[in-house]
Specification:
- By secondary structure, the protein is an alpha/beta fold.
- Helix content is 41%, strand content 23%.
- It has ten helices and 13 strands.
Length: 333
C-alpha cells in the first residue's frame, strides 16, 4: 500500500502552476522588449554567449526540484507488513447529494460544503465502524467501499464536488439501491445508511428502494440540508432560470425525507451549524447491534522521503553546474 504521511503538504504543488505561467510570460515579455530595442538578430550578436535554452532548462530543473522537495515533506510511504485486525462495529454508508442544487447558499458556505464539514466531523467520531461513501445526482456512484481507513475517507471526502456526476437530478432511489448492494450480503443487521440531501427533484421509486433495504437489514437515516424558503442555484456566474428567465429557487423537501427515514426505521435530522446532529446520530448508531469485523491492514510503513530529497538535491546540483552562457561546457575526447 502506498500513502503520504503528510498529504496536506501536497497542496504546495499548486504553486508550481503560477510559477510556470509567470516564467513563460517573462520570456514572452523579454522577447517583445528585445524587438522594441532593435533588430533581434543584431541584439543577439551583442550577447553571443547568452543561451535562452539553458535558461529554460535551469528554470525547469528548479521547478522539478521544488516539486520533489514538496513530495519529500509529504513523506511517501510504502506498506511493508500486514496484519488481520478484529473489532466490534457496524457498517455505515454515507450517501451525499452532489446535484447543482447543493451549491445553494441558504446554508453557509453552501449546502454541499456544510454537508462535507458534517461528514468530516462525523469521521472524527468513528472508531471501530466501517465507512463507505456514495455520491449521487441523476446517477449514483460508489465513491469509497466500506473500510476502516479513515484517512482514505478524508481524502475521498476532499474530492467530492458537483462535477463528479455529470447527469443532474436527485436519483435517491438509485443511491439507496447502490448502498444496499454495497453492504455485506447475509447480514440482517449491523448496517446503517445516512443520506444527506436537499431532496430536490426526486426522480421517484424511493419507497420501493427503502423497503428492499429494510428487508436486508439496513437502517436508513436522512439529513436535510437547505431551507423551506429556498435559495437560487449558482451556475456559471449566474443562477439557474426557468424557460421564462425567472430565477429558480431550490427548496428543502423535508416531508419526503421524513417519510424516507420513517419507512427506513431510522430518523430524520436537519443539518444545522453545530454538532448536535452528529451526537444524535451516533447515539442512534450505538443502538444498532455490532458484529465482529475482520480486516487486513498495513501496520508498518517505510518512509521514502529521502529518495525525493535526494532527487531534488541532484537536480539542484545540475542546475548550479549548468551555466546560462552558450558553449561554456566543452567535451574533450
Amino acid at each position: 500500500m502506498f500513502r503520504f504521511a503528510h498529504p496536506q503538504f501536497l497542496y504546495l504543488l499548486l504553486a508550481a502552476v503560477p510559477a510556470l505561467l509567470f516564467f513563460f510570460w517573462f520570456l514572452f515579455w523579454r522577447s517583445r522588449a528585445i524587438k522594441k530595442f532593435g533588430n533581434t538578430a543584431l541584439v543577439m550578436q551583442l550577447i553571443p554567449d547568452y543561451s535562452s535554452g539553458k535558461q529554460v532548462a535551469k528554470f525547469l530543473l528548479l521547478l522539478f526540484a521544488y516539486c520533489f522537495i514538496v513530495l519529500g515533506f509529504a513523506n511517501p510511504q510504502i506498506g511493508t507488513k500486514t496484519e488481520k485486525v478484529k473489532r466490534q462495529g457496524i457498517d455505515v454508508i454515507i450517501a451525499v447529494d452532489v446535484s447543482n442544487s447543493m451549491m445553494s447558499e441558504d446554508v453557509k458556505p453552501s449546502r454541499l460544503e456544510r454537508a462535507k464539514n458534517f461528514i468530516s466531523n462525523f469521521i472524527d467520531n468513528l472508531s471501530n465502524d466501517r465507512l463507505g461513501m456514495i455520491v449521487f445526482a441523476g446517477k449514483a456512484y460508489l465513491q469509497m467501499p466500506l473500510t476502516t481507513d479513515y484517512s482514505a475517507a478524508r481524502l475521498y471526502l476532499r474530492t467530492i464536488n458537483t462535477s463528479l456526476v455529470p447527469s443532474q437530478g436527485t436519483n435517491l432511489a438509485e443511491a439507496i439501491q447502490l448502498a444496499d448492494q454495497s453492504f455485506m450480503r447475509g447480514d440482517s443487521t449491523h448496517k446503517a445508511l445516512i443520506i444527506i440531501t436537499d431532496g430536490e427533484d426526486n426522480e421517484g421509486g424511493v419507497d420501493d428502494a427503502v423497503m428492499q433495504a429494510v428487508r436486508n437489514g439496513v437502517k436508513v437515516f436522512t439529513i436535510g440540508v437547505g431551507s423551506e424558503n429556498g435559495a437560487p442555484i449558482p451556475i456559471g456566474g449566474d443562477f439557474k432560470r426557468d424557460e421564462d428567465g425567472n430565477i429558480v429557487l431550490s427548496k428543502l423537501n423535508e416531508d419526503m425525507l421524513r417519510d424516507v427515514a420513517n419507512n427506513g426505521k431510522g430518523k430524520f435530522y436537519m443539518l444545522g451549524s453545530g454538532d448536535d446532529e452528529i451526537d444524535a446520530i451516533l447515539k442512534e448508531l450505538k443502538g444498532i447491534s455490532t458484529k465482529e469485523l475482520e480486516e487486513t491492514v498495513f501496520t508498518d510503513f517505510d518512509d521514502q522521503f529521502q529518495w525525493c530529497l535526494a532527487i531534488a538535491a541532484v537536480l539542484l546540483l545540475i542546475e548550479w553546474w549548468i551555466s546560462e552562457r552558450r558553449f561554456r561546457i566543452q567535451w574533450k575526447i
